Amino acid sequence: MTSMNPTTFDLFADTDPEQQPRIERIGEQSCVLRGFALPWLDRLLPALEAVLAAAPFRQMVTPGGFTMSVALSSCGTWGWTTDRSGYRYTRNDPQTGQPWPPMPEVFFQLAQAAALEAGFRAFEPDSCLINRYIPGAKMSLHQDKDEKSYAAPIVSVSLGLPAMFLFGGFVRSEKSQRVPLLHGDIVVWGGVDRLRYHGVLPIKDGQHPRMGEQRINFTFRTAR
Ligand code: MD3
Ligand code: FE
Fold it and tell me: In its keyword annotation, does this UniProt entry include Transport (predicted)?
C-alpha cells in the first residue's frame, strides 16, 4: 500500500484503537461512555476544587460502626451523609452546618449531556456525591435506595486511577459483571438497572498523571 486514499483512511479509522466504540451497553438501560468527560476536565477540575474548599472530603461512619475507606463530599441541594444513626440526604453539611455547596454549572451541564447521550432526556440532578478513593479503598456491594424516584438515571464520572466496577444483579448473591472504569469514563445507570447491586474492588497502587494517587467519582442523582 503506497497511498492513503479516502477509502483506506476510513477503514483505518474503524480499527484505530483510539477510535474504539465510545458507547458500551452494560445493562438493559445502562451504558459506559468512554472518555466522555475528557474534553470537560479543564472546566470541571477548578469547579471541583471550589466545592472541596467549602465541603472537604471526610471519612464517614456507617450505621454498623465501620469507617468507610472512601472519603465523601457532596454538592447540590441535597448531600448524602451516614453516621451511627443511619444514612440520609440532608440540605446542610453536618460538618459545617451550612448548605452543601451549590452544584457548579459545568457539573450540571456535563451530567445532562451524558444522560442525553445515553438516551435520557431532561435529567435534572439535584445532588452530586463525590467519592475519593486512595489505593486500597473500596466500596462493598450495595444498592442505592435512598432516592425518592428510580425513574431518573444516575450519572457517574470517573477520574484518576482506574477502578474495577462490580455490576451485580438484584440480589446480593448474584454473580457480578466486572467493568473497568478509566479516567474520563462516564456511566449512566437507568430504569430497571437502578436497583442492581454494585461496588468497587480495592483501588490498585498507582499515580495518575493529572489526578495523582487517587480516584475521584462523581455520582449525579435526583434525590427528591
Ligand atoms: C449502578 N459509587 O456512590 S459509580 C455510590 O465508583 C457508588 O464511586 C461507585 O456506588 C463509585 O453509591 C459506583 C455509581 C453508581 C451509582 C449508583 C448505581 C452505580 C450504580 C445504582 C445502580 C447501579
Ligand atoms: Fe452506589
Answer: no
Looking at residue 207, its pLDDT comes to: 98
Question: Cell 438484584 maps to which residue?
Answer: 170
- The per-residue pLDDT for range 6-30, each reduced to its tens digit, is 455 555 555 555 566 699 999 999 9
Q: Which three cell numbers stand for residue 5?
A: 486514499
Residue nearest to atom 22 of ligand 1 (CA): 194
The mean pLDDT value for 151-168 works out to 96
Cross-sheet strand order for the sheet of 186-189? 23-27, 30-33, 186-189, 154-160, 215-221, 127-133, 67-76, 58-61
In the chain, where are the structural domains located?
22-221
CA of 1 to the centre of ligand 2 (A): 51
Which contiguous run of DSSP H or E holds residue 11?
A: helix 6-15
Q: Which atom of ligand 1 is nearest to the CA of 27?
A: 23
Contact 33, 117 (CB under 8 A): yes
Q: 97 — alpha (psi -120 to 50), left (phi > 0) or beta?
A: left
pTM, full prediction: 0.91
Q: What is the pLDDT of residue 148?
A: 80
The CB density around residue 153, as the number of other CB atoms within 10 Å, is 26
The C-alpha cell that represents 218 in the structure block: 462523581
pLDDT value at position 47? 98
